Amino acid sequence: MKTTVHKSETRGHADHGWLKANHTFSFAGYYNPERIHFGVLRVLNDDWVAGGMGFSMHPHDNMEIITIPLSGAIKHKDNMGNTGVITAGEVQVMSAGTGVLHSEMNAHAQEPATLLQIWVMPDKKGVEPRYDQAAYDNTRKNEFVQVIAPMDTDEPGLNIHQRARFYLGKLDAGFEQEFPISDERNGLYIFVIDGEITVDAQTLSRRDGYGVWQTESVYIKAAADSYVLLMDVPMSL
């Protein structure tokens, strides 16, 4: 088994006034040669966006982009004709494929919004761009709810062009579970949104990240009420 630990305070940070961003992996002005990616997981940004502000129209291509709002509301618009607002309890996916323009703005004029934006490298390039969003049941406790699944499967969650699966779990203190990794070629990246957990012998607190691979499963125990994101991703394309 191999592991890597990314404590919250070691992440890259950018403060633009309207945007306060924390980068687990190298992104924009933050570059760390030891933190380029975890397998096909390329970007994990933890963003705070001031009321009425956001990211104006900008391009992407050949990337699977997943947005998970944590508080407030995010308004999406793209050149495919899609518009929508996503809030906590929803997940958004955009396959950039051959190229797409989109904007993401705080839907509220006064209240800030917080979100995770995650980029996954796709298993095929040049696909037709697509957009999707869906709600998941964020009231369920002590289980990991699947919110992302590989394309062309009947598994729960939104589909992406990669053999990746994401799960969100709201855990009570004392919860414990052995969690299997889906494929021997995959690793598991664990991000603690809130709370404190142990993964095998590793203690993780709010906004800490932990990657593990070359193992069949991990043992997760909640030391406090916690909110956790699990990302089961291939370690190579």
Descriptive report:
- The protein is mainly beta.
- It has one domain (2-234): Jelly Rolls.
- The chain has no helices and 22 strands.
- The protein has a 7-stranded mixed β-sheet with strand order 1-20-17-22-15-13-14, with no helix packed on it. A 7-stranded antiparallel β-sheet has the order 2-3-4-11-6-9-12, with no helix packed on it. Strands 5-10-7-8 form a 4-stranded antiparallel β-sheet, with no helix packed on it.
- A hairpin with a 4-residue loop joins strand 7 (73-78) and strand 8 (83-87).
- The radius of gyration is 17 Å and the shape is globular.
Tally of alpha and pi helices: 0
- Structural class, judged by helices and strands? mainly beta
Query: Could you give the order of strands across the largest sheet?
Result: 1-20-17-22-15-13-14
For the record, the count of structural domains works out to: 1
Q: In the CATH hierarchy, what is the class?
A: Mainly Beta
- Sheet-strand content, in percent, reads over 45%
Order of helices and strands: EEEEEEEEEEEEEEEEEEEEEE
CATH architecture: Sandwich
Largest sheet geometry:
7 strands, mixed
Mean pLDDT: 97
Got a strand count?
22
